[in-house]
Amino acid sequence: MAVSSPRPLAVITGASSGIGANFARHLAPRYDLVLVARRQDKLYQLAREISPSTGAKIDVLAADLSTDEGIALLEARLAVETRFELLVNNAGFGTKGFLWETAFEPQLEMHRLHVTATLRLCNTALRLLVPKNRGGIVNVASVASFIRGAGSVGYAATKTWMTAFTEGLYLELKARKSAVAVQALCPGFTYSEFHDVAAIDRESRAPRSLWLTADAVVARSLADLARGKLYSVPGWRYRLIVFFATKLPWRWRGAQGGRRG
User: What percent of the chain has pLDDT over 90?
Assistant: First the structure.
């Protein structure tokens, strides 16, 4: 009797809801999963939802990736996973308000999560993936990487760093002729808990036609990853917005970005 080969392993951060949870649903038919977030109860709930129907082995890791301890916990887990092939750096949050009028600690926490955690986890992941010459990394950035505005300066800056960092990794991998894929996923407004956590009113941010579902965002990301695309911008409206906005002088681009979170 033929013995089935073991499944590859995907690690998803920020997996307790929204885009991260939908990555888990999309990947579970083909991958075993390690789901990472602070809310352990939500992770177990998601695992119970998708494991029986997909046959995926799903492990849960409760970790706060805005702390050195949380990052180290996940780094140690990655180091012993011989089947590891995909990392989705999705953990993140936003803040609302002008920099000098808001509490500083959430800003610092956001930078640790979007920048430091992404840097360290990509470093660990690539040390494992490059020698195998397969696998990939998805760094979940934002359309705000290209269109910045008042009231979300820290968020836009960290997401801009994520896209620039991912592009640099892409060039390094190409220079080594590596088959490892990296992607900067840049969604626009997406229905999830993100805006609830940031206390942002959805109706005031954008018309309904600009809102995407997390399921559609993930489907586009994985299709683009399979094609080896560096940037994934879900939704034709957002692709048009990014195309034209990046051609504008920065003063005009910033003015247009004032309403975007």
Answer: 79
| Cα 254 to Cα 63: distance, rounded to the nearest angstrom | 35
The whole-model pTM stands at 0.89
Q: SS3 sequence, the chain?
A: CCCCCCCCEEEEECCCCHHHHHHHHHHCCCCEEEEEECCHHHHHHHHHHHHHHHCCCEEEEECCCCCHHHHHHHHHHHHCCCCEEEEEECCCCCCCCCHHHCCHHHHHHHHHHHHHHHHHHHHHHHHHHHHHCCCEEEEECCHHHCCCCCCCHHHHHHHHHHHHHHHHHHHHHHHCCCCCEEEEECCCCEECCHHHHCCCCHHHHCCHHHCEEHHHHHHHHHHHHHCCCCEECCCHHHHHHHHHHCCCCHHHHHHHHHHCC
The type of residue at 26 is H
Q: How does pLDDT run across 216-228, given as a tens digit for each residue?
A: 999 999 999 999 9
